[in-house]
Amino acid sequence: MIVYKNYPLSKILYYKIGGIARYVLKIENKEDLLGALDFVKKNKIQKILPVGLGSNLLMSENFFDGAILCFSKGESSGIKLIGENLIEAFASELLDDVIKFSFENNLVGLEWAGGLPSTVGGAVRGNVGAFGGEIKDVVNTVEIVKLLDEGYSLEELTREQLEFGYRDSFIKRSKDILVVSVTFQLQKASKEELEKAKETYFAKIAYRNKNHPSGFPSCGSVFKNITKKEEVDKMLSIWEDMSELVKEKWHNKASMGYVIRRLGFAGFRIGGAEVSKKHANYIVNVDGAKFADVISIIEKIKEKFFQTFGFSPELEVEIVS
Ligand SMILES: Cc1cc2nc3c(=O)[nH]c(=O)nc-3n(C[C@H](O)[C@H](O)[C@H](O)COP(=O)(O)OP(=O)(O)OC[C@H]3O[C@@H](n4cnc5c(N)ncnc54)[C@H](O)[C@@H]3O)c2cc1C
Prior knowledge:
The strands form 6 sheets. Strands 6-7-13-11-12 form a 5-stranded antiparallel beta sheet. Strands 1-2-5-3 form a 4-stranded mixed beta sheet, with helices on one face. The mean pLDDT is 95. By secondary structure, it is of the alpha+beta class. 30% of the residues lie in helices and 26% in strands. It is built from 9 helices and 18 strands. It folds into 3 domains: 70 residues, Uridine Diphospho-n-acetylenolpyruvylglucosamine Reductase, domain 2; 130 residues, 2-Layer Sandwich (Uridine Diphospho-n-acetylenolpyruvylglucosamine Reductase, domain 3); 107 residues, Alpha-Beta Complex (Uridine Diphospho-n-acetylenolpyruvylglucosamine Reductase, domain 1). Flavin-adenine dinucleotide binds next to strand 3, helix 3, strand 9 and strand 13.
């Protein structure tokens, strides 16, 4: 485990926004993780925050008086085959590397996540999803560290115990759990099925490159799509013409990219942050954006959304101020 002192988080986080952290502890494997927890205990550190790629995190420029547990991809791979169709991966591994490893072993089931920037830990905690797929469908078990008043315990959670929901899980709701490793249960594929999965994987990457903003830092979708039936119905009572898109294109959800654009925000800018013209649910850091710039845009969108539909959309990005 490597310890960095007074380290700028803008260097780690995907958004390139953030302040200084008293400690950043670089974790590449289980030994590093347990070493980091000992370090935290020995130094009586009160505040810790796990971070993967930081691709879903917006942090303020305030001093972080604690330790960032920075799950980073190591030199040696933490992905292995542990059964016919079971892959185990350490939390810091990239989801993309798990997909590539699965293909090498004639396994499929994760190809919908092509191009999705995430560590394994971040992906399972937030139940990532794209193009109708969700990680919950291929998670078998998760090894966790439960932080206790004195020390910690290592436990295994089954899929049922993980209580997955839309961009949600038991781990996300419990503030004292860290993901250590995940076992994925995938499907054995024939040659044709494997080729088809690879095609899907590359098609998803191409779709993202074409339709999602690239070139500027972001944290992906800022708001969750609207999934509750009563909320979607409320929106449809105001924008009746959206009903075909909801049914035919968005799997009965309302796409926040579409909604934010229609509310007139595409290209809207405050300071160095801008609502992407390509995908309006992304707020991109176009020119040294500050935390306050992004927050101000979020507030403006929420206000207009509330005025229009009478309820507030939920945030997908996690904010640490
Ligand atoms: C360009 C772009 C496209 C995106 N597309 C999608 C998409 O299609 N679908 C989607 O669902 N998301 C998408 N996202 C959001 C993001 O990729 C996911 O939320 C991702 O899972 C975050 O993973 P991470 O490793 O970066 O986690 P981070 O952003 O570092 O952390 C996210 C949260 O997880 C916690 N965490 C991280 N590691 C651990 C761990 N080991 N144990 C416990 N908690 C942990 C952090 O404390 C934080 O609360 C996109 C983001 C970007 C920038």
